[in-house]
Amino acid sequence: EAEVAQSPRYKITEKSQAVAFWCDPISGHATLYWYRQILGQGPELLVQFQDESVVDDSQLPKDRFSAERLKGVDSTLKIQPAELGDSAMYLCASSLEGARSSYNEQFFGPGTRLTVL
Amino acid sequence: AQKVTQAQTEISVVEKEDVTLDCVYETRDTTYYLFWYKQPPSGELVFLIRRNSFDEQNEISGRYSWNFQKSTSSFNFTITASQVVDSAVYFCALSEDGGRRALTFGSGTRLQVQP
Q1: pLDDT tens-digit series, residues A101-113
Q2: pLDDT at A100 exceeding the cut of 80
Q3: From the CA of B92, how many Å to the nearest CA of chain A?
C-alpha cells in the first residue's frame, strides 16, 4: 500500500542550528501539506503546495521557515535558525487533487519529531 | 475564519463504559467536510471518518458512531463499550471549500480507558 514517507523520524538539534525535513508524497498526488503539531495541541497547517506552487503559506513563519517542492514531487521544509519553541512533530500529508477539485482524502506520513535543545 | 473546538481536554472511563467526544465547529462555508482522527501514543494520525456538510445522516461503524447536527454545528463521536485499545488522543477536523482546503484541527481530546 502506498504511503507518505518522511525522514528523519526523529531529530535533535541545538537552538540556532539549521534543520531540514524531507517528505515524499504518494506517487501521483498533486497536493502536499506540511503541518506542525506542538505537544498537547492539534496539527496546524504550515504550507500547502499544489504541484510546485504554494497555495497557502499564511501560517508559515517566513523569517525562519522555508519550504520547497521544486519538481512538484518531494518536498523539503527547513528551519534556520531553530528556536526552542520549534520543538514539535512535523507532519506531511498528500492528496490526489487537493485544491484543484472537491474533496480528496489527505494521507498522513509518520511525522518527524523535532527536539530543540 | 474557520474554527474547531473540542472542549474536553481529557476523559477517563472504565472499560465497557460508553463515552462521547464533543466537537463544535465554526465556518461560513456552505460546503465543507468534517473528520475524526485517532492519534495513538505512537504518533501517527489514523483516519476514522469524514462527513460532508450535506449529509446529516448519523453513521455507525462497529462500536463507533457519529452524530452530525448542522443546527448546532456539532459533530460528536461516541464509542460504545470502550476498550483499553481505544486509549488515544482524538481530533476533530474541518476542511472548507468543499474539501479543497487544508484541515483545521481541534485541540484534541485525550481518552484514557482503564481496565
Answers
A1: 777 788 999 999 9
A2: no
A3: 9
DSSP annotation string for chain B: --EEE----EEEEETT--EEE--EEE-S-SS-EEEEEEE-TT---EEEEEEETT----EEETTEEEEEEGGGTEEEEEESS--GGG-EEEEEEEE-GGGTSPPEE---EEEEEE-
Q: What is the pLDDT of residue A13?
A: 97
Q: Please indicate if any CB of chain A lies within 8 Å of the CB of B101.
A: yes
Among residues B71, B25, B30, B73, the alpha carbon closest in space to that of B53 is found at B30
Mutate: best of B103, B104, B107, B109, partner A, most A CBs <10 A:
B103
**Would the CB atoms of A42 and B106 count as touching at under 8 Å?**
yes
Q: Which residues on chain A place their C-beta less than 8 Å from a C-beta of chain B?
A: 33, 35, 40-45, 48, 56, 89, 91, 98-106, 108, 110-111, 113
Q: Please state, in angstroms and rounded to a whole number, the distance separating the CA atoms of residues A106 and A32.
A: 9
Q: What is the pLDDT of residues B5-48, one digit of tens each?
A: 999 999 999 999 999 999 999 999 999 999 999 999 888 899 99
**B47 contacts in chain A (CB < 8 Å):** 105
